[in-house]
């Protein structure tokens, strides 16, 4: 009898719960049942962000190593192959030697940082596995040094792509003044072309980083707003469950 009673009561209870769910659920949600899948897995969001930062750090290190190796090699060749005549001003030679030394030192520092950090980041990135369904990140991804060495990576990036390129442009100007010291027109017009190029490069650098910061801020703001909307839906669902 007790088993028969349970069989009679359960359908009525289920129908009542189903009716309450249909009446109290928000209209934009499915009426069949309440699902907690509307909330993004916290591990999934953090895992995707972690992978993005890992790939970005790896790309920066690769770009820094290639750029620094190329420009420092050009500077060394220019210093060795340049012909010094007797009529060259000693101040030009001093400025050229200082600029070349600083240029090579900056690029070699960026190259050293990239060479030391990049293999460890590559080793982790090649074996990383992110489960997008469950939102879980494998533990070996957390062993990457790209977060603890973030300052070194940014230093290598700035030295290689900003400071190093500006020094390289100055190096070109000094080379023109030394190589064409007998021709005033050559020195004048080369400097006249080089100055606006340097100014445009500096302006582009500031504008690029400014727009990049705005884009990053906008992306984080949209993600936070999306999480807040999902949390509001979750709170509405939990209140419906408690009411039932």
Automatic annotation (TrEMBL):
InterPro entries: CRAC_channel, Orai_sf. The keyword Ion transport does not apply. GO terms for biological process: store-operated calcium entry. GO terms for molecular function: store-operated calcium channel activity. It comes from the Eukaryota. The chain crosses the membrane at residues 63-80, 92-113, 156-180, 186-209. Keywords: Membrane, Transmembrane, Transmembrane helix. The keyword Ribosomal protein does not apply. GO terms for cellular component: membrane. It is found in: Membrane. It is a multi-pass membrane protein. Belongs to the Orai family. This is Protein orai-2. The lineage of its organism: Eukaryota, Metazoa, Ecdysozoa, Arthropoda, Crustacea. The gene is Orai2.
């Amino acid at each position: 009898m007790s088993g028969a009673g349970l069989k009679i009561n359960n359908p009525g209870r289920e129908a009542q719960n189903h009716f309450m769910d249909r009446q109290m659920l928000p209209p934009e949600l499915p009426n069949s049942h309440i699902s907690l899948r509307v909330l993004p897995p916290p591990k999934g969001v953090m895992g995707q962000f972690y992978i993005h930062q890992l790939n970005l750090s790896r790309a920066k290190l690769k770009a820094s190593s290639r750029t620094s190796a190329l420009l420092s090699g050009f500077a060394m060749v220019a210093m060795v192959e340049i012909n010094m005549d007797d009529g060259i001003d000693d101040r030009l030679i001093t400025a050229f030697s200082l600029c070349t030394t600083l240029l090579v030192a900056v690029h070699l520092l960026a190259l050293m940082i990239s060479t030391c950090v990049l293999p460890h980041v590559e080793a982790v990135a090649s074996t990383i596995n992110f489960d997008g369904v469950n939102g879980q990140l494998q533990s070996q991804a957390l062993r990457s040094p790209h977060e603890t060495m973030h300052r070194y990576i940014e230093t290598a990036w700035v030295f290689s792509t900003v400071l190093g390129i500006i020094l390289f442009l100055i190096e070109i100007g000094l080379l023109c003044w030394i190589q064409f010291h007998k021709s005033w027109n050559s020195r004048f017009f080369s400097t006249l072309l080089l100055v606006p190029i340097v100014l445009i490069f500096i302006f582009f650098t500031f504008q690029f980083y400014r727009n990049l910061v705005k884009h990053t801020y906008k992306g984080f703001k949209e993600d936070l707003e999306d999480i807040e909307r999902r949390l509001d839906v979750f709170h509405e669902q939990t209140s419906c469950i408690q009411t039932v």
